[in-house]
C-alpha cells in the first residue's frame, strides 16, 4: 500500500457535488481509501479558453494498493463517469483528478509524470496539498 496525493478540481455544473462524488468514487476503488481531504478553495482558471467559470479545488491524501498506471486509469474512468469530456487543453471541466505524488516514486512514463510537473507552480494545487501533507 502506498500513500498518494491527488489534486481535484471542477468548474462546470455543481462543482461542490462533483468533487464530493469524485471523492466517494475514489474511496470505492479497489484497495484504496481516502484518508484526508483539504478544504475547498475557489480559484481563477489558468490557461484555456477565456470566460471560464471559477474552479473549486482540493487535494486528497489516499492509501492505495493500485499501481500508478492502474490508479491513473481508474481516475480517468471516474472523470468519464462524472461527465468529463476531452476537448482543448485547460478547457472547462466537470471534474479533474490528477496524481500529484505516489509514495516517494519518481515516474516518467508517456501517460504519467509524478511528481506532477506543474504542482509546485500552481497555488491552486500546492496550497491544498500543503494543508494535508
Task: Describe the model.
The mean pLDDT is 89. With 133 residues, this protein is α+β, with helices and mostly antiparallel strands. It is globular, with a radius of gyration of 14 Å. The two termini are 17 Å apart. The strands form two sheets. Strands 1, 2, 3, 4 and 5 form a five-stranded antiparallel beta sheet that branches. It has a single domain (2-132), classed as 7,8-Dihydro-6-hydroxymethylpterin-pyrophosphokinase HPPK (Alpha-Beta Plaits, 2-Layer Sandwich). Helix content is 28%, strand content 29%. The chain has helices spanning 15-27, 68-81, 123-132; strands spanning 2-10, 32-37, 41-43, 55-64, 96-102, 107-108, 113-114. The longest helix is centred in the middle third of the chain and has 14 residues, at 68-81.
Overall number of strands: 7
Instruction: Determine the fraction of residues in helical runs and give it as a percent range.
Output: 25-40%
Order of helices and strands: EHEEEHEEEH
Question: How many helices does DSSP assign?
Answer: 3
* Gap from first CA to last CA: 17 Å
Q: Runs with pLDDT <50, length 5+? A: none
Strand fraction equals: 25-35%
Radius of gyration: 14 Å
The CATH superfamily is known as 7,8-Dihydro-6-hydroxymethylpterin-pyrophosphokinase HPPK
Domain module tally:
1
Architecture (CATH level 2) name: 2-Layer Sandwich
CATH class: Alpha Beta
- CATH topology: the name is Alpha-Beta Plaits
Largest sheet: 5 strands, antiparallel
What is the mean predicted local confidence, pLDDT?
Answer: 89
Query: Quick one: overall form?
Result: globular
Structural class: alpha+beta
Amino acid at each position: 500500500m502506498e500513500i498518494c496525493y491527488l489534486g481535484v478540481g471542477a468548474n462546470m455544473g455543481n462543482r461542490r457535488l462533483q468533487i464530493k462524488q469524485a471523492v466517494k468514487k475514489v474511496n470505492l476503488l479497489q484497495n484504496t481509501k481516502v484518508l484526508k481531504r483539504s478544504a475547498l478553495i475557489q480559484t481563477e482558471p489558468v490557461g484555456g479558453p477565456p470566460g471560464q467559470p471559477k474552479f473549486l479545488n482540493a487535494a486528497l491524501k489516499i492509501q492505495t494498493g493500485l499501481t500508478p498506471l492502474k490508479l491513473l486509469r481508474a481516475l480517468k474512468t471516474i472523470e468519464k463517469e462524472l461527465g468529463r469530456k476531452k476537448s482543448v487543453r485547460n478547457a472547462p471541466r466537470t471534474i479533474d483528478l490528477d496524481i500529484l505524488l505516489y509514495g516517494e516514486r519518481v515516474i516518467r512514463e508517456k501517460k504519467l509524470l509524478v511528481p506532477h510537473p506543474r504542482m509546485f507552480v500552481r497555488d491552486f494545487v500546492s496550497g491544498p496539498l500543503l494543508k494535508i501533507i
